[in-house]
Amino acid sequence: MLGSLIKYEFKVTYKKFFLLYALVLFFSFINRFMSEARYGSLHFMGIYVPFPGNAFSETVHLSFVVIYIILLMAVGILTIYIVVKRFYNSMFGNVGYLMNTIPVEPWKNILSKLAVAFVWLILGIGVAFTSVIILINDVTITETIKGIYEIVVYLFLDGRGFLTLTFIIAAITQQISNIMIVYCSLSIGQLFVNHRKIMAFTAFLIISVIYIFFVDSAYSICFVDHNAARVVVSGARVTENVFIIGIITNCIMFAATFAGTNFILKNRLNLE
Amino acid sequence: MSEFALECKNLVKRYGSKEALKGIDLSFKKGNIIGLLGPNGSGKTTFIKICAGLLKQTEGSIVIDEKNIGLETKAIISYLPERTYFEDSMTVIDAIKFFETFYSDFQCEKALDMLKNLDIDVNMKFKKMSKGTKEKVQLIMVMSRKAKIYFLDEPIAGVDPAARDYVINTIINNYDENAAVVISTHLISDIENILDDVVFIKNGEIVLNDNVDRIREKSGTSIDSLFREVFKC
Fold first, then answer.
1. How large is the ipTM?
2. pLDDT averaged over chain B?
3. Averaged over A55-64, what is the pLDDT?
4. Minimal Cα–Cα distance from A204 to chain B, Å?
5. CATH code that applies to domain B4-230
6. Cβ atoms within 10 A of the Cβ of A14, count?
7. Cβ atoms within 10 A of the Cβ of A179, count?
8. Which of B71, B83, B90 is opposite residue A97, by nearest beta carbon?
């Protein structure tokens, strides 16, 4: 059932994202070609293509750059929008009358939406990164792959592997935990009869403050020199530990918000 | 095995200080069509939402086919809410596949037959449908299940009078004879003839719960007339 829910969630959301991703990549290619033409290095099938250099071509180039930047921002905004709107509409809006009456445990509903939101988040970052690579004039595809390979090798060799790994896991758990905070806030908001969205936003602020306080306390306990036994001397060790503490606090926050959302969907559902 | 599809005792639902259901006791026999009748805000939808698992009662107990409300009851309840609940981006065939995936009692052929009878294109998206067509599709989906109990919340309110007969025929021709059908509405004259029992609900309390023939015999009037009398403003 979880697999079917994930499939359904992708089916409902993929068109908007794919269209946006295609536009971002298309405009980054266009901008690259225009920049190459401008700096006299654009060749098409071996033939040199000049840049007209008139006011019209300058305006077109500038417009494409602006469109590209807007699209790049849209990837970020749309991802956040989908995370919030999809969960709210499909669990507490009209679609909630369908999703909450199918014989599926609430946690599967939550997990399916979380998984799909996370995939779009990662893909969005990937597309943004790829589009920037495309945009950079001097870099060929081979050079890019070689560069990425060198970075990966650098990050994972000479004893930096564990540090890199903890950083990646900390970043991933941070994103997942952030999405769950949004879901939990929306669930709390629907407990109220009136002003549900305002209450959800208030819940989000409160949970975020608790989260910051919690993380801050965890770091204080672990790193402040309360007693000699807790002092961490090496800089590298401190960094690794920073990420480890981050992973632990993210996981605790995720577990708490997931359990809270699940409890509300299971026992305190209050559809309008 | 119980003869009742649903039994509830002292069912109370409070929204803050407001009491939407004030300790109601009800039981619906299997095989019967029950009219849950009452004016707006009387507690009909709240009752149905509790049965469907969309709300939790404040007090009291409720069992459907001898099971407490939960995953097991969701699998045997076919619920038609008063609003349209399919994603706008979905097509009818997507909705059929969705029901087929999540409800083991869904009869795909039956749904396709009914859609064909109504000339509804299965490749049409919900966003391109009129409200009435969306409601008809939803009713077809709900009635294509072989459920133990059907809850139909205002099934004819959104359709034009000409299509109401089709909706009513769809209901009576498609429910399982061992299942109960609960129809909530205030358009009584349209459905009066298909009801076995009626429940009048007013301000969260049951004011009448009896067999339709017995009521007509006792009062000497139609259910519609009696409703107008009981709920006169």
1. 0.92
2. 90
3. 75
4. 23
5. 3.40.50.300
6. 13
7. 21
8. B83
